[in-house]
Structures are given as structure tokens and as C-alpha cells.
Amino acid sequence: MIIDKIADFAKVLPEVKKPTQQRVPFNTKLKWTVIMLVAYFILTLIPLFGLGERALQQFESLSVILGASFGSLMSLGIGPIVTASIILQVLVGADILKIDMSSPEGKKKFQALQKIFAIIFVIVEGAIYVYLGGLSPAPYYDPASNQFIAHEIEGVIALSAFQISALKFVLFLQVCLGGFLVILMDDVVSKWGFGSGISLFIVAGVSRSIFLGAFSWIKTDGIHFNGALLGVFQALSMGEPGVLLEQLSRIVFTVLVFVLAVYLQSMKIEIPLSPGRVRGYAVRWPLNFIYTSNIPVILTATLLNNIAMFSGFLVKNPAVSNQLQLFFSGPSIIQNLINGSFSSGLIGAMFVYLGLMVGGAILFSLFWAKTSGMDPASQADQIIGSGLQIPGFRRDKKILERILSKYIWPLTVLGGASVGFLAAFADMTNALSRGTGILLSVMIVYKLYEEITREHAADMPAFLRKFFKV
Question: Of the residues 195, 245, 272, 431, which has the maximum number of CB atoms within 10 A of its CB?
Fold first, then answer.
């Protein structure tokens, strides 16, 4: 099959070697996670050589979810990796690609295809960003400062068409380089660190955004601080109740999203199990309310953000472009209510965005459950393989699968719908960062906490055991 040949091609691509030991020590995981985190922040600080105006600058808030920083080597962020995952999830879920995700060979083939697709999307998205004007080269060169600039001033040199074309190609190569590095960095974290690079870079981007949203001293209008905490004190000193209410709402809704996300993440159903031949001993098989975790929200948010960004510089009509942005990124309902600029158009955009987020989260939850070994059949195999059974029922896979189906599919749909609704609600509250990003960060950190306490309670340093309470 052609799919098998494409998957085999991944063998010649650069990859990170798997650890030889079956279980990577805590200190080793911590070291590589910190190294990749530092590398990520370094890449966000390296500007693209020859960059002029950035048409994508208006979408800077959307880039948080992608772990991107437009105008730097991290301009693509995790976008290509997640987009590749979306495409593969759809193809496998629709049974267009025949891949058995329950077998080791099938999982290996899926990972190989995902890597190849991610590289393809690095090239495609890099070309779209540069050659459609999202990241444009500077048309002028200033010999005095040895910099490329976007606007003509006295003493600058206008670049020729050939030079601008060459700069475009250089920009394209830089964007692709950053994308390739992210793929390798994600591979390092997945094999040698905690969690995955996708999750790590989302948390890093959101944390930076929240910190700047709270403490930024930049004055966007020349008067008011952009940071919410500084803005609260400034509004109190200047006697501006409207500004004070707006800045307080940003802080309050940020905390509210954190609390709701932790509450939803902690909800679970526990199915009692017992070994077939041992009486008086029982264990519980937990099924989280957010059954498929944060993956469906990442996929949904990334898909909508890509549509929002691409339509932003493909659609030339400003009115149509602005309306599309409201549909795909959500209107700021709270801010408009405080400012008195709420309209019927915003209500329509709110319901469209809610529908897209909830529907997308449900759809990707179902796909993820079917393709990642979380469906009732796969869970039944795990339980039987562990020598367990539900008390009062025969140790039969079909019976166990039927019982699990009563819980897993409702949890998949309800959990996906709940997390999609909460993400959309958070996006429309004008929190300190994108609400979806805050929600994802809480869920990622919570899952990371569970993973560390479960797998490294014995080999982590004593002071960290006290911190993690293990």
C-alpha cells in the first residue's frame, strides 16, 4: 500500500532515539523538559531576518494556543503538528486509512505518518504565511542601523523586486527551520521528558501571556497600563470606575476559569473491579468526566485558529474579515457589556462560536476515543489482560464491553461538550490570556501532576515528594 511506503519513508528522517532503559529516571526527565523549555523561549526571542510588516500581528492572541510567537523562529509553533494530527484523526476515524490503532504496528505507523504530515504542513504553512503576506519582507534597508525596515525614511535604500523575492525565500527557510526544530523538540519531550512537547509549549505560551497580561507596564493608548494588576491600581488612583471594572473582570474570570477547569478535571466515575480468583480484594477503574482529556479542545481550537488566521489575510473586505474573526475566535462579550457596545451581531457570533467549539470538541472526542485505545473494546481488553472483572458478572469481553459502553460513550460526549463550552465561555470573558489556553494549561498541569505522582513517587527528590504530597 502507498500508505505503508509513506510510513516507511519516516525511517530515513532525523529522529530522537528512544531511551534504552524501560523507565526514564525522574531527574533525566526533568533535565530534558527544562532544556526544551529554555530552547522554546530562546526560539521565541530570535526574530526572523529581513521581516517587515506582519499581517499576522492582529492574531497574536490566537497564537498563544499554538505556542507560537509571530515574527520569530517560533512563528509556526505547534500548529503543523496539531494540524497533522487533525487530518490523521479524521482519516482514521472515517475509516479512510486502514490503521489498527490497537496493535503496536498500527500505532507505530500512525506516529510515522503523523511525523511526515507535520513536516508537510511545516512547508505548506510556512509558504502560506510568507507568500500570502502574513510575514512580509521589509522593502527597505537602512545602512546606518544595518537593519531591514518596513517604511521609507531618509537615507534608506529601496530593495529591488529580485532582492525582495530573495528575502521572501530566506524568510520561508527560517520559518520552516523553526517548524522542524519544534517537531524534534516535541520528540525529545515525548521520549525523554514529562508529557509531550505540544502540552509543554502550550503551557509555556499561556504562562508568558498571563504574566504579561497581569504585569505589563506597556501603555497601549499612551495612558493606561496593559497589565491588569497595574491597571487596577492606576484606575483607582485616577478615579476611572469603567477601567477598574474592566481590569478586575479580566482577573476574576481568569481565576474562575482556573477553578472550573480543576473542578471538571477532578470529576470521575470509578468502576469496581476484582480479581476473579481472589475474594475480599477490590480495585477501582477510574473513568474521568473529561474522558479524552484536553486533546479534543487542542484540535478544535487549532483548527478554528488556523481558519481565522488564513481567512484574515485571504479575505480583503475588512467587514467580512472582522465578522469571520468573531465567528472563529469568539467576541469579547464581557468587555463589550462593560463598554456599552454590545449588539445583536455579537449575540449571533457568540452562538456560532459556541456551536463550533462544542460541536468540534464532541467530534474530536469521539475520534480520539476510537483511535487512541480509549473505546470500550480496548478498555475491556486492558481489564481482562490485568486479570480483573466486574463483581457479579462473568469474565467475558463482550459483557464487559457492553457495561463499559454505558459509561464511556456518554462521558466522551458530555466531557467533550463541557470542556468545549467552558473553553468558548473563557475565550469570551477577556481573561488575562486566551480562555482556551488557560483551560488547556490547567488540564495539562493537572494531568502532568497525576503522571509524576503515579510514575515517580519513589525516585523524585525528597523536597519534591513533600511538594507533590507523595
Answer: 431
Distance (Å) of CA 104 to CA 2, 123, 401:
20, 29, 21
As given in the structure block, the three cell numbers for residue 10 are: 519516516
Q: Which one of 3.40.50.2300, 1.10.10.570, 1.10.3370.10, 1.10.1040.10 gives the CATH number of domain 267-430? A: 1.10.3370.10
Rounded to two decimals, what is the model's pTM? Answer: 0.79
Name the DSSP letter for residue 219: B
Higher pLDDT, 405 or 92: 405
At 280, the pLDDT band (50, 70, 90 cuts) reads low
What is d(CA 305, CA 308) in angstroms, rounded to the nearest whole number?
5
β-strand partners of 389: 274
What's the confidence (pLDDT) of residue 384?
81
- Cα separation of 324 and 307, whole Å? 9
Q: Out of 235-239, 247-251, 353-357, 459-463, which region has the weakest mean confidence (pLDDT)?
A: 459-463
Give the helix ranges, DSSP H, for 315-396.
Answer: 318-329, 333-339, 344-371, 376-385
The distance between the two most distant Cα atoms of the chain, rounded to a whole number of Å, is 88
**CA within 13 Å, CB half, 374:** 21
Q: With CA atoms as reference, report the closest residue to 269 among 414, 446, 369.
A: 414
- What is the pLDDT at residue 281? 59
Q: DSSP letters along 71-123, please?
A: TBTTSSTTHHHHHHHHHHHHHHHTTSS---TTSHHHHHHHHHHHHHHHHHHHH
Looking at mean pLDDT, say which of 168-172, 385-389, 435-439 comes out highest.
168-172
Looking at 1.10.3370.10, 3.40.190.10, 3.20.20.60, 3.40.50.720, the CATH number of the domain 1-209 comes to: 1.10.3370.10
Tell me if 73 sits within 8 A of 445, measured CB to CB: no
Q: Could you tell me which of 442, 450, 444 has the C-alpha nearest to residue 263?
A: 442
What are the domain boundaries of the chain?
A: 1-209, 267-430
For the record, the C-alpha cell of 317 comes out as 473586505
C-alpha pair distances (Å), 336 with each of 173, 321, 422: 41, 19, 19
- 3-state SS assignment for residue 268: strand
Instruction: Give the separation between CA 44 and CA 30, rounded to whole angstroms.
Output: 21
What is the 8-class DSSP label of residue 207?
Answer: H
CA angle, residues 215, 221, 226, in degrees to nearest 5: 15
Report pLDDT digits (tens) over 404-421.
899 999 999 999 999 899
Query: From CA 273, how far away is CA 122, in angstroms rounded?
Result: 46
Instruction: Work out whether the CA dihedral 382, 411, 191, 123 comes out positive or negative.
Output: positive
